[in-house]
């Protein structure tokens, strides 16, 4: 039987001929390491250089926004033009000079942006969040047809700049309740025009985004997508619709599909309420990947839950997926990939981040914010703190977000 580390070390050739050096990928994590006016900072090359030195074959950046008017959180990097091209080039080179591929995740938050950060939030339809989240998120305004087409063009423009800067690919964020995910969901998208009303019309937006990016970057530049297996919400995006969307994207020429799941209203991506069978296999969405594999040959990446060398090896050996997506393990152990590739287990195991505050823990807020703080430490050239207090992290996050929102709004008004 092939050793797990041998499978992990095998290069992967994508449909367009690009080659990834191994089967370990850092899934997108929201770094929030931009300035409050959304510029690239030197902390980003520092952070990604650390991961590249740790042996991860593919590094996917988190939440690079395509529109300064539509931020997901304070400190997002926005790429609308070439003003930050030298720092973007340094960011790309921090990974490529060490042999890693580095893709930029392009995103638009839609309505999933905290109150007060943007002048207004938009979405396919003016559907509010559930009651216990309305204190944090405003009801959005419905997008016009002209605005939808402008957003599609912005995805393409940003991708072209990313390619010019030396990054080796882009990923469309189509998961976790952001704008692309909102268009796909019958809960969030109740339009009756050409952008909604049927599953085919709801997927039109993501297909148009893909085609616009492909026209901008050409056939030899990898384009991937992060997509929900399901929203895990009543009336939301289902596994059947996800499978049909993946088949449509595969037919259109997508180079890789990363499978995740959930939204901030139903945070399955954080491991909440996983079945015992999923816990035993570690990967949260492996069963869905197995279904997808029977329908398409496009490379698949599964993110969420992988912890042990044996589980990663078994998943790859099964043929259900092609890339192991790691997120939180690399936040607390940036060299974890090098250990796995040498046949060793990681030093640190991911544990639930629990504050004891019911609403915070149910929404899995600290499963993002706690790890973001570890990224900030590494971006400053420091070591992560695997045992940092959840309450201490929460307090710092709340203060930082309030300060960041106020500074962002002040800069925007000046």
How does this structure look, described?
The structure is a single chain. This protein has 414 residues and is an alpha/beta fold. The chain has a single domain, classed as Aldolase class I (TIM Barrel). 40% of the residues lie in helices and 12% in strands. α8 links the parallel β10 (223-228) and β11.
CATH architecture title:
Alpha-Beta Barrel
Strand content: 5-15%
**Helix percent band:** 25-40%
Main-sheet strand order equals 3-4-6-9-10-11-12-13
- CATH topology name, in short, is TIM Barrel
Radius of gyration, Cα only, in angstroms? 20 Å
Total DSSP E strands: 13
**Overall geometric form:** globular
Count every helix, treating DSSP H or I runs of 4 or more residues as helices.
16
Q: Major beta sheet, specifics? A: 8 strands, parallel, barrel
CATH level 4 superfamily: Aldolase class I
CATH class: Alpha Beta
Rounded mean pLDDT score: 91
Low-confidence stretches: 270-274, 276-280
Query: What is the first-to-last residue Cα distance?
Result: 64 Å
Assembly type: single chain
Topology:
Elements: H1 4-8, E1 12-13, E2 19-20, E3 24-26, H2 43-53, E4 58-60, E5 64-65, H3 85-96, E6 101-107, E7 122-123, E8 141-142, H4 145-165, E9 169-174, H5 179-184, H6 199-202, H7 204-217, E10 223-228, H8 239-252, E11 256-260, H9 276-281, H10 286-293, E12 300-303, H11 309-318, E13 323-326, H12 328-332, H13 336-341, H14 358-362, H15 366-379, H16 390-413
Parallel strand pairs: 3-4, 3-13, 4-6, 5-6, 6-9, 7-8, 9-10, 10-11, 11-12, 12-13
Antiparallel strand pairs: 1-2
Helix pairs in contact: 2-3, 2-15, 3-4, 4-7, 15-16
